[in-house]
Amino acid sequence: MEAVIEKECSALGGLFQTVIADMKSSYPIWEDFITKAGKMQSQLRATAVAVTAFLDAFQKVADLATNSRGGTRDIGSALTRMCLRHRSIEAKLKQFSMCFLEGLINPLQEQMEDWKRGVNTLDKDHAKEYKRARQEIKKKSSDTLKLQKKAKKADNLGRGDIQPQLNSAMQDVSDKYILLEETEKHALRRALIEERQRFCCFVTMLRPVVDEEISMLAEVTHLQTISEDLKALTSDPHKLPPASEQVILDLKGSDYGWSYQTPPSSPSTTMSRKSSMCSSLNSVNSSDSRGSSGSHSHSPSSSSSSSS
Amino acid sequence: MEAVIEKECSALGGLFQTVIADMKSSYPIWEDFITKAGKMQSQLRATAVAVTAFLDAFQKVADLATNSRGGTRDIGSALTRMCLRHRSIEAKLKQFSMCFLEGLINPLQEQMEDWKRGVNTLDKDHAKEYKRARQEIKKKSSDTLKLQKKAKKADNLGRGDIQPQLNSAMQDVSDKYILLEETEKHALRRALIEERQRFCCFVTMLRPVVDEEISMLAEVTHLQTISEDLKALTSDPHKLPPASEQVILDLKGSDYGWSYQTPPSSPSTTMSRKSSMCSSLNSVNSSDSRGSSGSHSHSPSSSSSSSS
Q1: Among partner residues B51, B127, B214, which is closest to A40 by beta-carbon distance?
Q2: Whole-complex ipTM
């Protein structure tokens, strides 16, 4: 009986030690994860900054198209919508990057310290309990041995009143073994739960980050539509759209302020020529009530409303 | 008649010049776009490298969970799937970044040179045609003026045979004006088409990049399911799953090679203790045919098949 329990307890204790050793040896993996996550996060942050600058430049190209006279107002409007959708993606990227740092990297780093303390406590507690249980078994066993000797002696003398005492002592040893086994099982269960909790904790931190990542997906649908709009709008690059032909017709016979400036013979007059064109352009805009070809400034608020 | 056409031609020519000037003045905007796009692209590339390193570290954490004894095999498997999905996103990110450079930034840079040449040619051609048409009008007008004087003189002398010649000359002037107007309209149309083509060309380069982006974001869909799996798997971190309880039961009464190593009194014995545990762990794995708690190495191919 004792031999079987002894073997079982040894197996339980051995597995306990392996689990503890596994947890202790896993720190470099977690630390590597935190390091690489930190590097990726700072890259994401730098990318978000680059995206902001890129989208500013993109919006200027969209404005060019919106304000040009070549019938590209619709293209400009679609490009503006494309830009605005990317602003949402940019915002989501920043949120994602922030959540990655504050929801995963930093808490995991702090958690690591708790984990280290937790495992050390488990290990120490187990060693203490094991030692105490062992000592109790040793004491009870030696008590039993003494009683057995006493019983043998008493038996030889013909006195049988020690037997109940001996039985009780042997029961005590057996009980202590069962207690040791329960202690070992309890310790092993605690170690296994501790190990499992780490991953549960990790997943709890990871999921909100993944959710942020997923929310970037929501913007895709819109990109698809805008991309198709752009395809349709640019399907015939060698032909002017009716609106632009209209500009030419309107100009003929209109009282627009356009006037041809004789090209200068020397480059020194470029400035004055430019400024005179600029003023004639402005006079067109002020008189162009329909706004089909004027260079009205494209404000973000009007872009925003057109994209909804 | 001439005065009206003169005004119209001046308006057409003025708009032509404005369109040309707009195109010429837009280069800084396009160049800024190319610069910012280049910076963003190199950030994306650097991010992709950081993502690769991060996913390697992430996979190691997933392997920890898969190989641990705390009943986290399912969590490890879900984390591996999460990692594999991110490998797809990583691959798409690299493709996107490559497409951004090779499909948009580089071709746009080259296109800029064509645009500059194209606009200069348009401008020169127009100036030449305008000058020639003007000279022809001037010549025809002076011819008409001469004929008018001649006709007056002839009229005074009572001779009326110059009138048909004069009519024809006046018709010539009128025709030349109409030709000038057509020339101006043609030039304006070419300039407007040139301007519009730029944006069509830009959109043609942009769309495949956006398509790559969309396909990258589309990978995110798969994350949702895995995230929900992970949530379910880690819903009760304080309880061992049945599989782990089974490990404890199996260990009891089994002939596993686990055996408890008395904790060392000095750190010098750590190595030998570790190696003995390692060998006992190996013996477990070799005898554990069900593989419910062994530390089988988690190969990428098996991860891949479990994620499908």
Answers
A1: B51
A2: 0.79
